[in-house]
Amino acid sequence: MTLLTTTDKATAVALVTLNRPTRLNAIDLPTAEQLSTMWRELRYDDTVRAIVVTGAGDRAFCTGLDRDAATAVPQPNSPYTIEDPLLRIGPKSNDLWKPLIAAVNGMACGGAFYLLGESDFLVADPAATFFDPHTTYGMVSAFESVLMAQRMPYGEATRMALMGTAERMSARRAYEVGLVSEVTEPGESVTAALRCAEVIAGYPPEAVQGTVRACWSAREAARAHALAYAPHLVSLGNRTGQEQSQLFTARRRGGFLTR
After folding, report:
1. pLDDT of 125-161, one tens digit each?
2. Which residues of 95-107 are buried (b: 16+ CB within 10 A; e: fewer)?
3. Tens digits of residue pLDDT in 196-223
4. Name one GO molecular function term (predicted).
5. Which domains does the chain have, with CATH numbers?
6. Could you give the CA distance from residue 162 to residue 148 in angstroms, rounded to a whole number?
């Protein structure tokens, strides 16, 4: 299974695990569909009041869209539309307003930001790192940058987007700029996230979900307006698939800085 979901009936907390550790938990098309379906199903599951999402293993939370899946999705011949299989992998995109906490372990990059952008807050292992590889490989970081610009100061989000694979943001720095709400002891990110989720799940669900919706609505108008530009920017600025693959092969052995 590429997606594991377990529910603790005693605490009303579900733990969702991206389960592709050999692919650094990159999201392929079946996993994207499973995520979308799962969020819609959880809307009707009253035994779940709060959710934690994490990645299997300690190397990566998620490294975005699997490259094999990226080349398998045909694109329309129009600069105004784009087929993006990650647009519906988050709970808010599927009208689920139960709180989601992300427990970030290892790398979180690129398309992982679709999930992090729709999480209500992030808890990170001290070894977690955040970066956006798009520009390095000749791709526009549009959807990802919009989501991160709503979670971090403008300069930090822009630096991450523009520096590509040359620099990774550490968990410590992510905490300093407000992307992460807590840096745990090593190996404790899931435990810490579950602890928070259990507290929240113990409160009246109507109050909790209404609060999630209120917090999201404070960002939603600006987010929707910004995302409307994303397909056009991606269509205009992306290199061809072959050029992207050549850049990926040429640069994957390069080093990076951590701050």
Report:
1. 999 999 999 999 998 899 999 999 999 999 999 999 9
2. ebbbbbbbbbbbb
3. 999 999 999 999 999 999 988 887 766 6
4. isomerase activity
5. 3-185+227-258 (3.90.226.10)
6. 13
Rounded Cα distance between 112 and 131, Å, is 10
Distances (CA, A) of 177 to 37, 78, 112, 171, 180: 33, 37, 18, 10, 8
pTM over 0.70: yes
Task: Return the residue matching tokens 């080349």.
Answer: 71
Alpha-carbon dihedral 82, 3, 94, 47, rounded to 10 degrees? 180
Strand stretches in the chain, DSSP E? 3-8, 13-18, 50-55, 60-62, 100-104, 107-109, 121-124, 129-131, 167-170, 182-183, 257-258
Would you say 15 and 52 are in contact if contact means Cβ atoms under 8 Å apart? yes
Q: How far apart are CA 30 and CA 24, in angstroms?
A: 16
pLDDT in tens, 13-71: 999 999 999 999 999 999 999 999 999 999 999 999 999 999 999 999 999 999 877 66
Distance, CA of 19 to CA of 33 (rounded, Å) = 14
Question: How far is the C-alpha of 94 from the C-alpha of 96, rounded, in Å?
Answer: 6
Q: H or E element: which one contains 247? A: helix 241-251
Distance CA 63, CA 34 (A): 17
Instruction: Identify the three-state secondary structure at position 125.
Output: coil
* Alpha carbon distance, N-terminus to C-terminus of the chain: 35
DSSP 27: B
